[in-house]
Write a structure and sequence with these properties.
Layout: E1 33-38, H1 43-60, E2 64-65, H2 67-70, H3 77-86, E3 88-95, H4 103-119, E4 124-128, E5 144-145, H5 152-164
Parallel strand pairs: 1-2, 1-3, 3-4, 4-5
Helix pairs in contact: 3-4
Length: about 170
C-alpha cells in the first residue's frame, strides 16, 4: 500500500511508512525521540546533520531530536541536553575537527555513554565526519566512517543497522 503524506501536516508523534521497510514504531513509553544528535553548530557539521535528520524523518519515519528545533526555550541548556539524551533511544555523536572542541558535545557524549553503560545497551553511535583527535574515552568504540571520500552507500547501512539494533 502506498502512503503519501506531507511532513508538515504529520502530528509530532506520528510514524511515516517507508515503502521499502516496515512501519517504524513510535518510541517506547517514556521516550520522546528515536535519535538524539550531538554535533557542533558550525555550517558544515550542521548541514550534514540536517540532511541526515531530514532523510531519517521523511523517508524512514524516525523522530529525531535536534537542539535547534527541539530544545525548549527558557530551559537551562544542560536540562535540555539531559532531557534530549535521556528521552532518546539512540544518540549519534558526530566527531569532526570542530566538534571535538565543542563544549556542548563534551557534555552530551558522556551522558549518552553513561546511559549505555548503565542500561548495558549500545545507545551511543559515534560517527567520524573528519580526521580528528577523537576523545580518549571513545577510541575503543567502533565508529561509522562518514569522512569525505567515503561513499554514503558504505556508511549508511552501518548507521541504519546501529539505529535499529536493540542491544
Amino acid at each position: 500500500m502506498d502512503v503519501h503524506v506531507i511532513i508538515d501536516k504529520i502530528p509530532f508523534n506520528a510514524a511515516v511508512e517507508n515503502p521499502s521497510r516496515e512501519r517504524i514504531p513510535l518510541p517506547p513509553p517514556g521516550k520522546k525521540f528515536h535519535i538524539f544528535f550531538s554535533y557542533r553548530d558550525v555550517p558544515r557539521d550542521k548541514l550534514w546533520v540536517k540532511k541526515l535528520i531530514d532523510k531519517l524523518e521523511t523517508e524512514y519515519g524516525y523522530i529525531c531530536c535536534d537542539h535547534e528545533r527541539d530544545f525548549l526555550p527558557g530551559t537551562k541548556i544542560m536540562d535540555n541536553i539531559k532531557d534530549g539524551v535521556m528521552n532518546s533511544e539512540k544518540v549519534v555523536v558526530v566527531f569532526s575537527k570542530e566538534s571535538i572542541d565543542s563544549y556542548y558535545v563534551s557534555l552530551e557524549a558522556p551522558i549518552a555513554y553513561q546511559q549505555s553503560l548503565e542500561k548495558r545497551k549500545n545507545l551511543l553511535i559515534p560517527v567520524l565526519l573528519d580526521d580528528c583527535d577523537v576523545p580518549e574515552e571513545y577510541k575503543l568504540l567502533t565508529y561509522i566512517d562518514a569522512r569525505e571520500g567515503v561513499e554514503e552507500t558504505t556508511w549508511w547501512p552501518k548507521l541504519m543497522k546501529s539505529i535499529e539494533s536493540t542491544g
